[in-house]
């Protein structure tokens, strides 16, 4: 029996950048909200039993990208995380391109 997954994603058809989150069915039916911030940042809100999880997919700019691009990404990331209630668990996945050591 093959398992089925649902892809929640945000990106461009040019295949430059883009983020996504795969959720196994039937857990995908428990997605409460989706926020697509940019082609580098998105999250889904998911109910797992009695807990609410916020799952981020993040793709930070490479270290050789412009300071403006890096600052825009980290500002959006910080601003978004600050809106999430402390009662909700945050999981962060993705490629932070060496910015977090």
Automatic annotation (TrEMBL):
InterPro entries in alphabetical order: Endo/exonu/phosph_ase_sf, Swc5/CFDP1/2
Entries under Gene3D superfamilies matching the protein: Endonuclease/exonuclease/phosphatase
Protein name (record): Endonuclease/exonuclease/phosphatase domain-containing protein
Originating species: Helobdella robusta (Californian leech)
